[in-house]
Design a protein that fits this description.
The protein has 276 residues and is mainly beta. Helix content is 4%, strand content 54%. The protein contains one helix and 22 strands.
Length: 276
């Protein structure tokens, strides 16, 4: 994957702190870690619409202590599943929301506090090391990516099997950038491969931000989730969202989004092309 091209293809006005995205047809759906909305951006029309996910606030931007911290969005058929990160003990970040892609409002808003607690207990994670940043729904299984930016750097993947009701956790050892351990920020499945983002942020907190040392793009095999490859795609950006766009015989293309932690209500949409 060392042969890649990265460029900005659009600037979405009205969305800040982008943390996850999904592409279908002409639309890019975006979640933000400090907003209660799911946004839909039309590439051809350059227009933005939105769906309110949680009715407790109509504000476009919420302060850190109040935000739901939506960090992961997974598509399953024609439905979205949006996950709060679970990265605090106030309960606000412990929601899972389900809605139809064409829906005007969610049909399920679920408090998953107890589910998140069971995941932590499974592997002995403290609340300081629990921070879900990516999700994949695939073949009756759910993969949740824990960002290892807590004190014990617990990068890993929770695998939930709906049929067997089994839950397992696979730790993943990721490299360092500039002396800082990289940590998962999102992932997407393409065929039998998971493409993931991992950023190096100089902090030992799942709650507080730090200086950014860059972002890797890596691959894991399915279904065993063995780490196969990774490459540095930026030494300055903290990319937090990835979605598959298209493939041909030579290349795969993705859209990426970043959270620059600057408080601005704009999101740069990046186009990433990598060799197969």
């Amino acid at each position: 994957m060392s042969d890649f091209a990265l460029k900005v293809v659009a600037t979405i006005i009205g969305v800040g702190a982008a943390s996850g995205l999904f592409f279908r047809d002409d639309s890019v759906y975006v979640i933000s870690d400090d907003s209660n909305y799911l946004y839909r951006y039309s590439l051809s029309a350059n227009t933005l619409s939105k769906v309110l996910l949680v009715a407790d606030s109509l504000d476009e931007q919420l302060p850190k202590k109040q935000k739901r911290d939506f960090e992961a969005v997974a598509a399953d058929g024609d439905r979205f599943y949006i996950y709060g990160s679970g990265s605090s003990d106030n309960g606000k970040r412990n929601l899972r929301i389900a809605l139809d892609m064409e829906g005007r409002q969610p049909d399920t808003v679920e408090d998953v506090t107890h589910s998140y607690a069971r995941l932590r207990e499974l592997v002995g994670l403290t609340e300081d090391d629990f921070n879900l940043e990516g999700a994949i729904h695939r073949d009756g299984k759910v993969y949740l990516f824990n960002r290892g930016n807590g004190p014990n750097q617990m990068n890993g993947i929770f695998k939930l099997d709906a049929a067997s009701r089994d839950t397992t956790f696979l730790p993943v050892e990721l490299p360092e950038l500039g002396g800082v351990r990289t940590a998962f920020t999102d992932a997407v499945a393409v065929g039998n491969t998971v493409y993931f983002l991992a950023a190096a942020e100089d902090t030992e907190s799942v709650y507080h931000d730090g200086a950014v040392n860059g972002t890797l793009l890596g691959t894991l095999s399915l279904p065993d989730l063995t780490l196969e490859d990774y490459t540095l795609i930026s030494d300055a950006h903290k990319f937090e969202g990835i979605t598959f766009v298209a493939a041909d015989t030579k290349y795969l293309t993705f859209f990426l989004c970043e959270d620059p932690d600057n408080g601005e209500q704009t999101t740069a949409l990046y186009h990433l092309r990598v060799n197969r």
